[in-house]
């Protein structure tokens, strides 16, 4: 069985990267070999951080596997340094795979730039000429050009799966055109993991919790801890669902609650105490920061 070597980054959530490559190739009966170029700290909401494997270690990974099991197809994905590019090019010249597919990861699903302009230029000049085909997301097409370019949708994991499926078909003896055509109709649908039911559930739990408690708390960690998630993850969720920070949601809810109470008979001092402001002046400053008027002025308007 002709082996497929995939060189790319990890995806902790399994929607793309090395995990998805192995899953796709193995599911269809292929022989998947792997070399990790970058460790990513990510989940279904996107990448949080990177750790780029040193180029020397990447080259040694390739040599260790290719010396033993020569790859028929090499699929290249995420890498972020010139030194890694040099290592990959040396290995392509040394092992001369029948097919080389390049599926560049220029921007993340959150539109973060993952390759700098200098690296993009070097890839176009030095790696692209060695590639049989370029399998690229529509949004990244402007960065690279190849004699054989296969364009995929921008959905997370879509380009990755298309390229892996083509690699599998090439390893079975198809031409690149045959492989592309068959891959497009045989590819299983990809579940959109950008907004899972867990994310929505946590978002609604957060909203219900802080509306129920509704107090002057700037501590997002308080709510994150009650939900048993990190503050960063909670922030990712609210940004994804409503494009707003947890703090922004807390402030909005608190502001609405103050307005409601200002339409009762309670004094501003009593409202400040109920909502755990340190003083009436503190509440007034908070309210004026968002509305441009004082609570007393708002109360007069509300009663008109």
What does it look like?
The protein starts with a strand and ends with a helix. The radius of gyration is 26 Å and the shape is elongated. Helix 1 links the parallel strand 1 and strand 2. The chain contains 13 helices and eight strands. Helix 7 crosses helix 9. A six-stranded parallel β-sheet has the order 2-1-5-6-7-8, with helices on both faces. The protein has a two-stranded antiparallel ribbon with strand order 3-4. 51% of the residues lie in helices and 14% in strands. The longest helix has 17 residues. About 2% of the residues have low confidence. It is α/β, with parallel strands linked by helices.
Biggest sheet architecture: 6 strands, parallel
Note the beta-strand portion: 5-15%
Backbone CA Rg: 26 Å
How would you write the strand order of the largest sheet? Answer: 2-1-5-6-7-8
Structural class: alpha/beta
Overall mean pLDDT: 87
**Poorly predicted regions:** 188-194
Number of helices: 13
Helix content: 40-55%
* Total number of strands: 8
H/E topology pattern: EHEEEHEHEHEEHHHHHHHHH
First-residue to last-residue Cα separation: 81 Å
**Shape by Cα distribution:** elongated
How is the topology of this model organized?
Layout: E1 3-8, H1 17-27, E2 31-36, E3 38-43, E4 46-52, H2 55-66, E5 71-76, H3 82-95, E6 99-102, H4 117-127, E7 133-137, E8 149-152, H5 158-171, H6 176-186, H7 197-213, H8 220-227, H9 231-242, H10 246-262, H11 268-274, H12 280-291, H13 295-302
Parallel strand pairs: 1-2, 1-5, 5-6, 6-7, 7-8
Antiparallel strand pairs: 3-4
Helix pairs in contact: 1-5, 2-3, 5-6, 7-9
